[in-house]
């Protein structure tokens, strides 16, 4: 089983993204950017563990390029972040096929949900120690 989606053009000499890999125009990630991506990966694990149980399939992100919402399931987003770590640049994005927006939340919602769960658990622990 693959951790990320299989590249449909792997090994294809007519791969439309081949020139992107060879251009070298983009700078690798800075140490701070790399740390941010690692933190996003760690957060993603927490969000998936908490939110999958309530029917959330992934995250929605407002695309800075096309100003459209992009829906990413957990594995695709994880694969994209890992690709960013190894290559230093994001993947070319493609819109999801007919996603149901009701099954996706924003990073901010996921962060708030995780913080709420953390606070509730901390409060329950504090109450139990009295």
Helix fraction by DSSP (H/I, runs of at least 4): 40-55%
Instruction: Average the pLDDT over all residues and give the rounded result.
Output: 84
Biggest β-sheet description: 3 strands, mixed
Distance between the termini: 48 Å
What is Rg? 18 Å
Shape: globular
Instruction: Give me the secondary-structure category.
Output: mainly alpha
Quote the beta fraction. Answer: 5-15%
What's the order of the H and E elements?
HHEEHEH
Q: How would you characterize the overall build of this protein?
A:
With 130 residues, the protein is mainly alpha-helical. Helices cover 49% and strands 9% of the residues. It has four helices and three strands, in the order ααββαβα. Strands 2-1-3 form a three-stranded mixed sheet. β1 (58-62) and β2 (69-73) form a beta hairpin. α2 (31-51) runs antiparallel to α3 (74-87) and α2 crosses α4.
Brief description of this entry?
The termini are far apart.
Notable traits:
130 residues; mainly alpha; three-stranded mixed β-sheet; 3 strands; 49% helix; globular
Strand and helix layout:
Layout: H1 18-23, H2 31-51, E1 58-62, E2 69-73, H3 74-87, E3 104-105, H4 107-129
Parallel strand pairs: 1-3
Antiparallel strand pairs: 1-2
Helix pairs in contact: 2-3, 2-4
């Amino acid at each position: 089983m693959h951790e990320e989606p299989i590249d449909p053009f792997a090994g294809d000499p007519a791969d439309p993204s081949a020139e992107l890999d060879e251009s070298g125009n983009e700078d690798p990630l800075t140490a701070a950017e790399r740390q941010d991506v690692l933190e996003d990966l760690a957060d993603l694990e927490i969000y998936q563990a908490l939110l999958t149980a309530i029917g959330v399939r992934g995250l929605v992100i407002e695309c800075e390029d096309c100003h459209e919402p992009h829906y990413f399931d957990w594995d695709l987003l994880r694969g994209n972040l890992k690709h960013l770590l190894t290559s230093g640049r994001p993947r070319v994005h493609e819109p999801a096929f007919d996603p149901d927006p009701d099954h996706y939340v924003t990073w901010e919602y996921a962060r708030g949900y995780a913080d709420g769960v953390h606070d509730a658990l901390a409060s329950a622990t504090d109450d139990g120690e009295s």
